[in-house]
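Pipeline run #58 for the internal structure catalog. This entry was flagged by the ingest filter as a single-chain record with no existing model, so it goes straight to prediction. Upstream metadata was stripped on purpose; only the residue string is passed forward. Reviewer on rotation: M.T. Logging verbosity set to normal.
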Amino acid sequence: MIASLIQNGFLWITAFYAIAMIAWFFRRRAVLIAFLLLGWLGHTIFLVHRGGLLGIWSPHALLEETFFLPWCLGGLALGLIFFQGKEALAGGVLIPLVAFSLLAFLFPWGVIPPNPKSQTVFSWLFFLFEVVSHACFIGGGALAVIYLRQGDPARLFHSLLVWGFIFYSVAQVVGAYWSYLGWATPLHWSNRHLQSASLWCFYAALLHLRYLPVWNLRTEARFSLVGLVLLLLYAYLGPLTETNLGHRIGG
């Protein structure tokens, strides 16, 4: 019953995002803003409700990437509209927003129950910074496509990649400390840790290669799309093929 209510609620949220994306294609600014706001506010309520599904407040249920990442992308699109006045760029973020909202329907809808190793602020801080960084990388990749096709004097895609790298670096430090508290070591030779390290190395190289004479922003924009492929493989394709996605409360 709980899983059904959550799924139906998120279905409407995804529909609002899709309508906003279609409005962007047809240059209907008022419709774009209205449905994006409706979807994002509904998404906020959905996440708050999800955080309390266990009967106690659980930041982990709220911050699960499957549902929190689209919320971050929606907030990014709204920020581009209201703080930057860039409806055209915000529309570009709507495409991955809808895509990742649809991907959520492939994952389990239940909530992972808390365990002793996650009972620390460093646990949920890790997921917060990691998902926000992923949203910046995805948003930066979306704006990089617009930059390659139309140009963007503000070069906002580069700024998003920089902020994504900063947030991701913080996530690695916080995650290492959480790992030390929970498992007595800051690093495991596991897929999860090695994938995080490789993604960090990729964006570190991407941002620092600009100091080479042969490197330019257009090359950076192209290579940022490779980062999106890595992120998709690590954060989505890997978990979808694992068998430990069960053991959830609510489906």
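catalog note: The mean pLDDT is 85.
catalog note: The longest helix spans residues 121-150.
status: ready for reviewer M.T.
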